[in-house]
Design brief:
Radius of gyration: 16 Å
Structural class: alpha/beta
Strand content: 15-25%
Number of helices: 5
Shape: globular
Order of helices and strands: EHEEHEEHEHHEE
Strand order of the largest sheet: 1-4-3-2-5-6-8-7
Number of strands: 8
Largest sheet: 8 strands, mixed
Mean pLDDT: 90
C-alpha cells in the first residue's frame, strides 16, 4: 500500500531526488497511511519486518519505501541502502527519519516499472506492501529480477488475494480501495504473479496482517532468489 523530503537532514543519507508535483491522491494517501500503519506495526507487523530484513546484505534496494517503516530494521553492515519512493509527500516523511542504519543511505525518486539502475547492481531487493499498487506488477517484478545480481535475493512482504468469501469481498471493495489508497488493489494475486517469473522461490509464509481492515489481512512473507 505504500513513497524524503529536501529540507530535513537524514543521518548517513543522501537524497538524489528532485521535487515533483504531489497529486491529490498522493497527498491524501500520505495523510493517513503512516498513522494507520504505525498501529499495525505496534500490533506485531514490526516483528515481521525485523525478522525478514535481517536477511538483507550487500548493496540493498527497497522499492516503495513509503515513510520508512522498514528503515530501522535493516542491518548496519549493509554496503549501501537505496530507498526508492515515488510519492513526494511520503518522501518528505522519509527524510525526517533519524533511525536509519549505519550503512550509507541514498533516497531516490523513481518508477518500479523502469528502475534507473544498471543490470545486476544489487545483492538484495526488498518490497513491503508495494505490489498491490504498481500499475504493471509483472513488469515491476521483471525489473527487480534485472537489477539483482545472480544469486541475489528478493525479500517480499505483501498483502494478497484471499480465498472464498474474502476474495469476493476484496473484488467488490478494490475499486473503492484503489481510490482511497493511491492505487492499492486489495485482490491482487501477488503469489501467482511471482510464480510466473524466473525467480526461484526459496521460502514463503502465509500469515495474517494484524489489522482490522479485512481486505488486506492475508499476507505472504518470503524470499526469492535470482538464479
Amino acid at each position: 500500500m505504500a513513497g524524503i523530503g529536501h529540507d530535513a537532514p537524514v543521518p548517513h543519507a543522501s537524497d538524489s531526488t528532485t521535487m515533483t508535483t504531489v497529486t491529490f491522491g498522493e497527498r491524501f494517501f500520505a495523510s493517513w497511511y503512516p498513522s494507520f500503519m504505525a498501529r499495525v506495526e505496534r500490533a506485531g507487523q514490526a516483528d515481521v519486518r525485523g525478522a525478514q530484513l535481517a536477511l538483507a546484505h550487500g548493496r540493498t534496494l527497497e522499492i516503495g519505501a513509503g515513510n520508512g517503516l522498514s528503515v530501522p530494521h535493516y542491518p548496519d553492515e549493509l554496503d549501501e541502502l537505496v530507498l526508492l519512493e515515488p510519492n513526494p509527500a511520503l518522501r518528505a516523511r522519509l527524510a525526517a527519519r533519524t533511525d536509519t542504519p549505519a550503512a550509507p543511505v541514498t533516497i531516490v525518486d523513481g518508477d518500479a516499472h523502469h528502475l534507473d539502475f544498471p543490470d545486476a547492481s544489487f545483492d538484495t531487493v526488498t518490497a513491503s506492501l508495494v505490489f498491490c499498487s504498481v500499475r504493471d506488477p509483472a513488469q515491476a517484478l521483471s525489473e527487480v529480477h534485472r537489477v539483482l545480481r545472480p544469486g541475489g535475493v528478493f525479500l517480499f512482504h505483501e498483502h494478497v488475494r484471499g480465498t472464498g468469501v474474502r476474495a469476493t469481498f476484496q473484488d467488490l471493495l478494490t475499486p473503492m480501495q484503489r481510490r482511497l489508497a493511491d492505487g492499492c488493489h486489495a485482490n491482487r494475486d501477488f503469489e501467482s504473479l511471482l510464480g510466473t517469473t524466473d525467480f526461484h522461490i526459496e521460502d514463503i509464509e502465509h500469515t495474517r496482517m494484524p489489522t482490522w481492515m479485512p481486505t488486506i489481512v492475508p499476507l505472504v512473507v518470503g524470499t526469492a532468489r535470482r538464479g
